[in-house]
Amino acid sequence: MSRTSVLTSCSLFAATLLSLSAAQAQKTYDPGASDTEIKLGQSTPLSGPASAFGAGAGRAVVGYFDMVNEGGGINGRKISFTQLDNAYSAPKAVEQSRKLIEDIGVLAEVGTIGTAPNVAIQKYLNAKKVPQLFITAGGRRFNDPAQFPWTVPLYPDFETEGRVIAKYILKARPEAKIGVLYQNDDFGKDYLKGLRAGLGAKATLIVAQASYEVSDPTIDSQIVQLKSAGVDTLIEQSAAKAAAQSIRKVHELDWHPLHIIGGSTASVETVLKPAGLDASRGLVTTQFLKQPGDPAWADDDEVKAYRTFLKKHAPSVNPDDYSVLVAYMNVNALGAVLKACGDELTRANLIRKATSLHGERMPMMLPGITISTTPEDYTAFKTLRIAVFDGTSWSLSGEPMTAD
Fold it and tell me: Do the beta carbons of residue 112 and residue 124 sit within 8 Å?
């Protein structure tokens, strides 16, 4: 080989090394990430009082990451996903978070369900500077970037939902006599706070309110109390069991108020059918996701894709389970954020990407609904849709409505 050829070969080799070094230098990893893998974790109620809520959603999340890995992962990296049971217990949730971070070494804890577990782990994860990402809890307290910058919610907060309903009432029934039924915890109180704030000077339209405890066997007496107060507009933020009871009781009393229920209890399959479809006719709610069991979406391509995914990757899961639907939205959003991180798989960059969404739309979101976040405001949903039940399915009413 000539001297010129040797020099040329050496130059090419040096250039290749420099190129590889530059490419490697552009890759930045925190614990839980590498060239081939991204470790993520979640604790969820696989047992205990909320197991019906957490088990189905948990299987859907596991199935989603199985599907992603079958397709080659995200940016060429497979997802190593660990799911632990927290039994919907605050102490157990903290224990499992410690295991995920300190023993397994995940990059982030993602999609943890419920207010109580997320409140319990919030301080620990923020102290460790580990993302508590896209949690499934509607408490306004989770949008606090100043105090808890590592906690990013995704589910629409209940205060925003209450504000949207207030805006709807002021337009549809400005002289309403409002009665409010709410669950006596953050779930109900945040909604009521938003409703009052949205009504503003018209908060005097609320002529009666009644609360119930999760452990109460029935809410019949509260419904009778609200009817007796002369209410013509019944607004409730209650869990599925209480919502079904209230719909039936209103029907049994031959009472015909404008009846508004919370978006989390608007499932045709799991709430309205048990309550009675005829009794449910005329109900109003807020929505942001397509309802798989609603005939209105039977031929929708996204709904078909969702059902196909569950049939293959989580066949035991009920596609009409609302918690499963929300989990599906969450993991799609998570996948989009991880993809946007590219080769900078650090915890700080994960938070940056999750809090700089601009009008993103995830599969199964209703027309006109998108998510946006900023470093100053982590609330993803600013807009919801009003829907009316016609006895068979939900029909969207009017344009998307903001909480402003």
Answer: no
Beta-carbon contacts of 107 under 8 Å, excluding residues fewer than 6 positions away, are 30, 31, 32, 33, 38, 39, 40, 131, 345, 347, 350
The answer to pTM > 0.90 is no
Q: Which residues of the chain have pLDDT under 50?
A: 3-4, 6-24
Query: Scanning the structure block, which residue is given the tokens 């953050």?
Result: 186
State whether the Cα torsion 185-186-188-194 is positive or negative.
positive
What is the identity of the amino acid at 340? A
Q: Three-state SS for 330?
A: helix
pLDDT single digits (tens) 25-61: 578 999 999 999 999 999 999 998 778 778 889 999 9
Supply the pLDDT for residue 264.
85
d(CA 401, CA 297): 21
Environment class of residue 343 by beta-carbon count within 10 Å: exposed (0-12), middle (13-18) or buried (19+)?
A: middle
Please report the pLDDT score of residue 100 as a whole number: 98
Report DSSP state, residue 100.
I
Q: Is 47 exposed, middle or buried (0-12, 13-18, 19+ CB in 10 A)?
A: middle
